[in-house]
Amino acid sequence: MAFTMKQMSIIVSTFGILSFIAGVIAENKKPASGNVITGKGVVICKYPSDPTVVLGYLSVAFLALCTAFGYLSLFYPYKGKSVPQAALFRKTSFIVFFNIALGVTGLAAAMLLWPTITEQLHHARNVHHNLKTQCPTAKTGLLGGGAFLSLDSALFWLVALMLADNAREDYFEEMGNKGASSEPIKGSA
Length: 189
Known about the structure:
5 helices
């Protein structure tokens, strides 16, 4: 199936928005702390049932799909016409936004994965021998910040896609001009 640039931008946007929504809901559903249950020489942390870990991983998965389609959309041969990567990377603005998109994606992934994995470890390792344990949860705010960065990442992929489209047009225009003859047409005055 051949994709159009509009379809690719809708796919990138959709996955970016889904990652944002899942991350924000995960942040809002995260409990402040677990319930302390004291036993003989141990503290058992009972955490309420919440979808934080699942939503955190879903947000990361949607971010990965957004990134994969964002990257693919830049180099995809639209209308069967491919452009060499060197032609795209000749444009400074494209290079800048391409690298920003990669950087923001990495930062978003780190900010989503860190609290998600931490929360999962808190739930799995809930027996503590330190009787002063307060049953902590993952740091508050990281999932929400990661969610906003994943939305930013999608926006930067879309800007890079627009700049790639401009570079494609310039490339095809150059190729069209190289094929034109510089000699005047016979019969013209």
